[in-house]
Amino acid sequence: MKLYIYQYGFVLDKTTKIPVPGFLIQTDDGKNILVDTGFRKEDPFSGNLLAEEEDTVEKRLLSIGLAPSDIHYVICTHLDPDHCGYHDLFSNATYLIQQEHYDLAKSGANSRLETYRKYWDLPHLNYQVIEGDFELVPGIHLIHTPGHMIGHQSVLVKLPTLGSVIITGDAVFRQDEYLSEQANDLDKEAQMKTNSIRKLKALEKEHNVNLVVFGHDPVQWPHLKKSPEYYQ
């Protein structure tokens, strides 16, 4: 099993460059599992987005010899625009999404989820809705972590050499939030967020996690291996 970390670009917050990550997990039996697809480079949802030519999911996949048609699953942490901009590319994949988040998105009640609806709400995309924690394949677990938004999910990956890794997604933007267990201004449900952080901390101990990758941490980002390097 291998874990690649993709750089999809940055959001400029005053003078701080906030990373926008994605992930590819390759299993030993040849499954390619993508976690989030990033923001749409040619249709940015904000004027403060910074991206180079190679900072798209398609270019990141190509750099390790893959095409969108090679992806078997897309794990959708949630449908904020910086996480779902290229959903339309993966017509061969099964999308894994929490039922309550999919229902919220389809309802049209959340304006953030409407931003890129034209890319995620398409008839050729195959969504598999799940409820709660879910083992996708051996060693890859989807973890229900609401708070940033209803139905958000994180990912636990068990690698053969490094050991267990938690991909928090936006359940935890930065390490300081993880330590303080506090919500930020973009989180919809503060108490749910705190509960989800505590859940992730419990999983960290239970599974002897050796790496927690936070959702948008500019301090952690330079210290992570980026594709084409990988964790194993």
Distance between the termini: 6 Å
Number of helices: 7
Largest sheet, in brief, is: 7 strands, mixed
- Helix and strand pattern: EEEEHEHEHHHEEEEEHHE
Report on the structure:
With 232 residues, this protein is an alpha/beta fold. It has seven helices and twelve strands. The chain has helices at residues 57-62, 81-84, 99-107, 111-114, 117-120, 175-180, 190-206, and strands spanning 2-13, 16-26, 32-35, 49-50, 73-75, 94-98, 126-130, 134-137, 140-144, 153-159, 163-167, 211-213. Helix content is 22%, strand content 28%. The protein has a seven-stranded mixed beta sheet with strand order 4-1-2-3-5-6-7. The chain has a single domain (2-223), classed as Metallo-beta-lactamase, Chain A. The mean pLDDT is 95. A hairpin with a 5-residue loop joins strand 2 and strand 3. It holds the Pfam family Lactamase_B. Counteracts the endogenous Pycsar antiviral defense system. Phosphodiesterase that enables metal-dependent hydrolysis of host cyclic nucleotide Pycsar defense signals such as cCMP and cUMP. Its cofactor is Zn(2+). It catalyses: 3',5'-cyclic UMP + H2O = UMP + H(+); 3',5'-cyclic CMP + H2O = CMP + H(+). GO terms for molecular function: hydrolase activity; metal ion binding.
